[in-house]
Amino acid sequence: MEISSRTCFPFLSTETVPLLKPPFHTSSPSLRILAARPVNLRMGRTVVTCATASTGNRAPSGIMKPKRVSPEMADFVGAPEVSRTQVLKLIWAHIKERNLQDPSNKKNIICDEKLKKIFPGRDQVGFLEIAGLISPHFLK
């Protein structure tokens, strides 16, 4: 009964029910329940979107823009131009596919021969270092 009374009379609260005089207030059991407990009258949130954010025809920029890469990175990726985000996705796919994360510490990546070409002289790389270590491979 309580749930249906709140859905039927959501505009009534402890502030509006006392305005109703006792003959009306006591005759309705659902109004007695509402008078006993306050109703939460919060307004729902409105989501406002920006008109420029919804345009999908814009050219990629920043880290999404394809740039020329070094020959070592081109061999790994298989393309002469690629975006930073795509390179990171391909590196992580390579790591996951070959199970190159250190079992004792998942933050460390054990470099195989392909990764050693990209990260020269490194046998292990921290996963936070990857984004910084690929920077020299993007040519200006």
Automatic annotation (TrEMBL):
For this protein, the record's InterPro entries field holds:
SWIB_domain (IPR019835), SWIB_MDM2_dom_sf (IPR036885), SWIB_MDM2_domain (IPR003121)
Q: Which GO terms describe its cellular component?
A: nucleus
Q: Which SMART domains has this protein been placed in?
A: SWIB
Enumerate the Pfam families for this protein.
SWIB
Indicate the segments forming the DM2 domain, all copies. Answer: 62-140
The organism's place on the tree of life at top rank: Eukaryota
- Database matches in PANTHER family: SWI/SNF-RELATED MATRIX-ASSOCIATED ACTIN-DEPENDENT REGULATOR OF CHROMATIN SUBFAMILY D
Q: What is this protein called?
A: DM2 domain-containing protein
